[in-house]
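WARN no homologs supplied; continuing
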Amino acid sequence: MVEPGVNRVVPRRRVLWLAGAGVGSLTLAACGGAEGQPGSSESSASQGGGDSSSATPSVSGEASAASSSDGETIVKGYSGGSKAPEGEYRPADEHGPAQNVPKPMKPAGMNVETVEGVVKFLNYWVEAHNYSIQTGDAQLWANTTSKVYENDTKSIQWLYDLYHNNDGWIAGGLRSIVIKEETFHKNETENEYKILTHVETQNTVVYDPYNHKISNTDHSDNNRKMIEVSVIFHPQERNWLVIDKRFVDVEFS
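OK structure emitted
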């Protein structure tokens, strides 16, 4: 999924996200846990579909442009036009969601309160996001995100609803990250840190059969900006969580 130096990566306006973050205002289900703990991806929406497109979140960063086609007849099948052989990865496309998406593993040494630890965590955070938006298994992304980070929490809920209630899927929207390790510094709050990154998000297409909508998001403008990510380390649980992120008025070079 920003105004120079202040806007958050995920805007609150209603924008069909994809590609990084365009999430609107969603009614969140139980995103349990104590403050600062990861939220649950379980949905409180009733089964059988819901108008979750009325508040579409963004999963990868603020959308620089978005268009929506209403009244579309969307037939969900297999990406690439056929079922992939076991173990063969196929990205999502207009035919259907991604197939055989490899599940990322937590790297050794990630949950350590050091710059090396946070770099490993942020790379895993991006991999968890990419896995979740391709599969609808929002738990991995939720497990890297603090409950207090409302924007991404809403995006996670929206993602769950799209896949599980609306029978939809996302094509594109995958992130990559470059981390400026030298900018890692402690914030005034205990165990809270900030670090400068560059997150690049593929253009995204959201297929929503329940609401008959195909929505496109172009992230090229935001891909030229830097993002400051705020993280917190929990010594008892020995884990990192993302608690905020914002665009800064610096172009990536």
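DSSP finds three helices and eight strands in the chain.
OK
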